[in-house]
Design a protein that fits this description.
heterodimer; A: about 350 residues; alpha/beta; Rossmann fold; 6-stranded parallel β-sheet; 4-stranded parallel β-sheet; elongated; B: about 325 residues; mainly alpha; ABC transporter involved in vitamin B12 uptake, BtuC; two-stranded antiparallel sheet; two-stranded antiparallel ribbon; 14 helices; 4 strands; about 75% helix; about 5% strand
């Protein structure tokens, strides 16, 4: 979900390679501007880091956690950054000897550069990373590990086993399964539904397979499934076309809350709100609010929290400040958000 | 046997062929709802593409239109939400946002134009830079998330996209109006003739006492205004703007212009062709959604093939004539 931009070029391109060249050039231009800003940021951060070290030198050595995540280019990533910043503030306030350095990247190569800087300039003791892409980041993370850094990987695993010390992730297959089970139960095993998918990636496949597995054995007919690219506009146009095509739809699996918002608008335009209900995914505050308010059109949501970065950061901090054993894999559940428990999952300040 | 002039008729033939394909693929294609949807959807790219026709005719290019649209939407939403506290009349708020949109669009276009003409930087580079700037700005304004329009405002404003006049959605009427104005401007005014001249040969135009810089800047401002108009109709559709808004609009607009017959190198422009080009692009997406005969993974491939074929049909004969 977080490499929207790169994949958008390939999935969307109506003008072939020209589109790829132009988009790559734009990423390059963005990287140039970003690098200039980062240079300034680094100088300031180095100054800050060294002054902190000087301040606490006689009493205890400052521990540093480096956090490397994708930049906030869209909803889920925005939420990710929000929770990362909140957790950084919380950890630094609670632990005076702890320093958290948060860096964001717009691409896999930029992230690899960030890792090198975190090791060389900030001399981090532990790393929390959400890789932009699994394969290109495996090598750099392995190198970081060799320098004696404690490694926590979030959401997207590395291509090779045995590198990470801790792995925190959501459960895509379960997300699909929970959605499928809800729809099956609500429709009593009988009905026609349409499915809007994300982008053609592994995450989308896992969710879709989990969903279809949950529907097995029932009489629910999936009329069609199309890619909506985790995008409101595409959710809108795809749903509009589904509504033109199918006169009878009982439920919609939108898989993602951004898509769900587009779907809601299309359904309202066609005035078919009474006929169906929508199941989204992710836990976006707008949808959770609807669930909380008892909206018939969106009765539930399924959690896939960007706040998993908080879990990862807190666990890593625990490792640095105490002897608590935390090595292992933590798979966060994807619970169904209903009217009863929506209050727990509502973050009105988050951009997601 | 009459020789079909593919240069002018090419795009129309492609459009008709796609239409027939659509009917063949699914009966729902010809339903009033579907046709209305297609026309409304094509208006965004269509309006932007009409502005692009002017820019490309004079030999320039504007890659920043998608990001500009995202930025203007973001500004409009922030402005409208902020005005909710001070002004009571919802219609006034919307009107003010529309004026602001036109101002920002015109200004952005002027910046592009001035940087290209006065600073003498390549249009490709200027608009590549502004593309990055506007998109980052809107992402910054939205904190990486999405800017949402206040619901009460959204309900009133949504009429602009979802309402109809004599059965056709408002966006289609706006598209039609912009197309007519564009056609008149390009083909029946001195300014239009200057655009053709500048695009064909800048030096000759310059020696013919045409203010080349002013003509080029004017086309960029026109493009900016077209983006504003498209944004004004776009915002009420979903009532939100984010870093993901308007992605690849620039490429779709340019594709629409080229499919329509305008030459990328400049000197020749066809508004009518642009309109057809925009319709073709929207039709392709719609047809692919109406059928599951083509694997989802190949949607991009189908679009690419159709675009290439459409342009080839239209260019092949041109080269033969020459």
């Amino acid at each position: 979900m977080t490499n929207n931009e790169m994949k958008a070029v390939r999935a969307h391109s109506a003008s072939g390679s020209l589109g790829e060249i132009l988009c790559l050039s734009s990423l390059f231009a963005g990287t140039v501007i970003n690098t200039v800003c980062k240079f300034a940021k680094h100088s300031i951060l180095t100054l800050a880091a060294s002054s902190l070290l000087l301040a606490v030198a006689p009493t205890l050595r400052a521990q540093t956690i480096g956090v490397s995540i994708p930049a906030a280019t869209h909803g889920w990533a925005g939420g990710l950054n929000f929770h990362a910043e909140q957790t950084k503030a919380r950890l630094e306030a609670a632990n005076p000897g702890l320093k958290v350095v948060l860096v964001t990247a717009n691409s896999a190569s930029e992230q690899a550069n960030d890792l090198e800087d975190l090791v060389a300039i900030h001399r981090m003791d532990a790393l929390v990373i959400l890789p932009f892409e699994s394969a290109p980041l495996t090598g750099p993370v392995r190198n970081t590990k060799r320098r004696g850094v404690f490694v926590t990987v979030v959401d997207r695993g590395l291509s090779e086993p045995g590198i990470h010390d801790v792995y925190v992730a959501g459960n895509n297959a379960e997300m699909g399964r929970v959605s499928g089970e809800y729809i099956k139960e609500r429709l009593d095993g009988n009905g026609k539904i349409v499915v809007l998918r994300g982008m053609p990636t592994v995450i989308d496949e896992q969710r879709f397979d989990g969903f279809m597995l949950a529907l097995e054995g029932s009489n629910i007919e999936v009329l069609d499934d199309q890619y909506a690219n985790w995008n409101r506009d595409d959710g809108f146009t795809v749903m509009q076309d589904f509504l033109s095509r199918f006169s009878e739809i009982d439920a919609v699996w939108a898989q993602d809350d951004d898509i769900a918002i587009g779907v809601i608008q299309a359904v309202r335009q066609a005035r078919r709100q009474e006929e169906l209900f929508i199941v989204g995914g992710g836990g976006m505050k707008d949808i959770v609010k609807r669930v909380l308010d008892g909206d018939e059109l969106t009765p539930v949501d399924v959690l896939y929290p960007p706040s998993m970065i908080s879990t990862a950061m807190e666990l890593t901090a625990l490792k640095l400040i105490s002897d608590t054993p935390i090595e292992g894999e933590y798979i966060l559940g994807s619970p169904l958000i209903t009217r009863e428990n929506a209050e727990d999952y509502y973050f009105p300040d988050s951009p997601f | 046997m009459t020789k079909i002039d593919f240069k002018t008729a090419g795009p129309f033939i492609a459009l008709v062929a796609l239409f027939i394909l659509g009917i063949f693929v699914n009966d729902a294609f010809l339903s009033a709802g579907n046709v209305s949807n297609i026309l409304a959807r094509s208006s965004f790219i269509g309006i932007v593409a009409i502005g692009a026709t002017f820019v490309i005719t004079t030999g320039g290019i504007d890659l920043s239109v998608g990001s500009m649209a995202a930025f203007i939407s973001g500004c409009m939403i922030l402005l409208m939400n902020a005005l909710m506290a001070t002004i009571d009349s919802l219609v006034t708020i919307i009107f003010l946002a529309i004026v602001a949109s036109a101002a920002i669009g015109g200004l952005a276009g002027m910046i592009n134009g001035l940087l290209t003409t006065k600073a003498k930087i390549e249009a490709f580079i200027v608009t590549l830079g502004t593309m990055g700037i506007y998109r980052s700005l809107v992402t910054y304004m939205a904190d990486g998330g999405t800017l949402s329009l206040n619901f009460t405002l959204g309900d009133v404003y949504s009429e602009v996209y979802y309402g109809t006049l004599f059965g056709l959605p408002y966006p289609v009427w706006v598209f039609l109006a912009v197309a007519v104005i564009g056609y008149v401007l390009l083909n029946m005014t001195v300014f239009g003739r200057h655009c053709f001249a500048v695009g064909s040969n800048e030096s000759v135009a310059h020696y013919s006492a045409i203010n080349v810089d002013r003509v080029k800047t004017a086309t960029y401002i026109l493009q900016g205004l077209c983006v504003s108009i498209a944004t004004i109709i776009y915002v009420p559709r979903l009532g939100s703007a984010s870093g993901q808004t308007g992605i690849l609009w620039e490429l779709e607009a340019i594709a629409a212009v080229i499919i329509g017959g305008t030459m990328l190198k400049g000197g020749y422009g066809r508004i009518g062709g642009t309109v057809v080009g925009a319709l073709i692009l929207t039709l392709i997406g719609n047809i692919l959604n109406l059928t599951d005969a083509v694997s989802n993974y190949l949607n991009g491939a189908v679009q690419g093939v159709i675009v290439i074929v459409a342009v080839y049909l239209q260019r092949g004969a041109w080269r033969a004539k020459n």
